[in-house]
TrEMBL record:
The keyword Transmembrane helix applies. PROSITE patterns: PROKAR_LIPOPROTEIN. InterPro entries: PpoB2-like. Signal peptide: none annotated. This is DUF2182 domain-containing protein. The keyword Transmembrane applies. The chain crosses the membrane at residues 21-54, 74-98, 119-148, 154-173, 210-231, 255-275.
Amino acid sequence: MSKLASAVRAAPHPAFARRGVSHAVFVGACALCFAASAAATIIGSASMAAMGGTPMPGGWTMSTLWTRMCGQTWAEVAASFIGMWIVMMVAMMLPSLVPMLWRYREAVGGARQARAGWLTVLVAVGYFVVWTALGFVVFALGAASAALAMRVPALARAVPGALGMVVLIAGALQFTEWKARQLECCRNAPGRCRKLPADARTAWRHGLRLGLHCGCCCAGLTAILLVAGVMDLRAMAVVTTAITGERLLPGSKRVAQAIGTVVVGAGMVLIAQAAGRG
């Protein structure tokens, strides 16, 4: 009997066993989503690279993302951009989003496993709806800027210097208290000890809130991606690493400032290169 009692005490509690299975399923699903979005992003990037771009005054090349091809409507161009933007953002943001999704799942731990899973999916959908809305804004601004640059050669020549200033400002933003607050919201949402109602409305609003905080927190780094090339794989890899690092590594404020130092230096180099061409 004593051996049987010891074996029972040593056996894992059913709740812990279920939690382990749930965690494995969660991680597996996130890994599959990341793999699929990364593959789609690589294919889209290769397709855009094959299409080339338009040489512009000032020594830069305008991507075909912002212009209509022969026979295309603006609705088709926008739909193509938004499709690529969504899969790209899933690939870029999912590594830093996964811990927040898991904390949410634990915050609704009183719900059944299946319901908690679907609510977590709803949080993720709300999060990426915010990024999709941002994609529409980015496309509108990019297309309008491209059209203006094609009509005004003097403006086109000023673009390299302006892009360098954007990078410089994005780097400086990494040192602000505003950035630190947004980063803290992203790292700790929801709080580890906080319990949330297990209902769809709360999940949806939580996902939207996460997306808004994340969009603000990543504003500077996202701007760098737009400057470097929206579908440039190297730029995506660097920005994804920076976003994930400042969210997950210890000492987030110091990590953000280290990233900012590198970005400020890159901005100064770009401005100097633009001045040299001028």
